Structure prediction request, 691 residues.
Amino acid sequence: MSERRFIVEPRGLASGWLIVLVPVVSIILALIVGAIFLTITGENPVAVYAKMVDAAFGDGRAISETLISATPLILTGLAAAVAFKMLVWNIGAEGQLIFGAIFATGVGIWIGDSLPIYVTLPLVIAAGALGGAFWAAFAAVPRVYLNTNEIITTLMLNFIALSFMNYLIFGSTSPWRDPDSATFPTGRPIPESGLIPEFFNRLGYGIFIAIVLAILTWWLIGKTKWGFETRIVGDSPDSARYIGIGVPKKILGVFLLSGAFAGLAGSLFVSGTVGALDPRSLDLGLGFTGIIVAALARLNPIAVIPVAIFMGALSNAGPALQSIGVPPETVTMLQGAILIFAVAGEFFIVNRIRRPEKSPKPTSLPEEAAA
Amino acid sequence: MNDWWWVSTVTAGIILGTPLLFATVGEIITERSGILNLGVQGMMLVGAVAGFWATFNTGGTFGLILGVLVAMIAGALFSTIHAFLSITLRVSQIVSGLALTIFGIGLSSFMGKVGSEPLVGEPSRETFKPLFEGGITELPLVGPIVFGQDIMVYVGVLTVALASFYLFRTRMGLSLRAVGEDPASAEAAGVNSTIVRYVHVMVGGALAGMGGAYFALRVVPTWQDNPIGAAGWIAIALVILSSWRPWRAMWVAYLFGSAQFLQLQLQTLGEPWSNIPSTLLQMIPFIMAIIAMIVFASGKRARLLGAPAALGIPYFREQR
Prediction:
């Protein structure tokens, strides 16, 4: 066996500065990769990035649009963060978001203008959480009771939800479809009393709901008995079972909570931004972007907030690039690159790399020989 | 006889199924080594844009061959990102694969729109055409279905045969499956699991890239954003439906290809067929995959079905 040049070993506890440094370096490296692609294809990366910053933060309107984009991302980020922390691989936020939107618009249209806003709006928003949890249950129940791999089921449920939404609007004359849309089918608008009021340009109060939920999630996971027990389940299901924690119930709870967050992203999106079940506005990959948010935030609910705002800024900057002749997909590419570097960075947060000692201690020799 | 509706359905279904076949067989080979790669959609798209670009700038039969080769190289190189992250850095294969897909979606659209002559909206300079002509293609049934296809369909069948032989009849295939079952034992038997996994992630990437190129050079021969639909995701489902076996992958890929074609045809068949909403039919492959997952692949049954035991689990050589 040849001698190793490096030894990789787990760190005990990741140091604070590294947790901040790694995401920042990931973003910088992704921007460099983006700059290389832009330069090769004849664009000026400095001009492109300047345009993006301007489109995302240039004036009050830009900032409000960035925060609008960030609102659902905080929630899909939380959806991924709570699930991944417990090693529940819910990658179905996309579909759960769609079902949240279907439930929310359904309740809004069903109630109509009959009730005041302080009754209708909370019901619309809560319906979204219910819809997301409902859709997550199709993967959560088989996972918990039959041990069915949830990666594939949640992934497949995304496409079923997408087709179902398309069916409601394009394939049928459902209550969700606007009967007045003659030429091209669109969603029926939610009545005024089911819409989130706006306070800063088009920015609605939904952003505060998202932020409060992020803080509550941090408290729930970090400070309560439920959170403590759930973390034990995530770290070691065997020890959790040994000390008498009901593991299936915990996993089911986390899974449904994750789905509810994604569903809330859907209801806040339709009642705050779109105002109807509109397939073209909802098929943006908000669920997958939530996974990027959670990964960059290292599954920390509080860190999800600034990361989601950053990702919202990026998403918001995409369309603006068209005005200078640069494809808006530059942003998707950057987001993917950021995730790749963030995932790679996780290795350096978790592990320490060092050179092997020149003369190994005699006690470590048998181990090395065995390896 | 050859103008029966199901003859044209099967003929077209084989064409639509062929890119699924490439991607599915590629993912089977990758997963057999114990690595789950959710980046299929991204690898196919990168292969599609690279292959289309290469053919677009050369043309002719040579251009087509070059397009497929460039797509395979692009797919293989792109997949090394996932290989490095999941094998060397041992991060979560799920997040790493998704990262590959998101990056690939962006990269493919980006490359299609930049440069002095953007590809978007351009028809391919050359497309795959049926290989045989004349009497043989007019034989009953087998004429159109078997002899009416382009060369990539035959390459697809050959790929399946080779993959099956490699996996189950060769020593290297045995090593590969051993690494997918238990990398520690495989290493004890003298197999370098790191190299085996790298190579087979790249083989999977090359085949996904080839499937993407077939989309751009045959199925949808005009460049557009995402010419492949959800094919990469369907391929991941087909891996399970084929229980990690290449021959079964071929049949399910053709079956889904035919179902897709039939779904497009329903609208032209008149009442009552045209009343079936295509939006609901689009769900069928995904619903079938979920049912198959729950019924056949829950818990320990996944092992009986053929799922590699070490699938998705990072291998820590140092911690043995």
User: Anything to note?
Assistant: Chain B has a mean pLDDT of 90. DSSP finds 14 helices and no strands in chain B. Residues 18 and 153 of chain B are 6 Å apart (CA to CA).
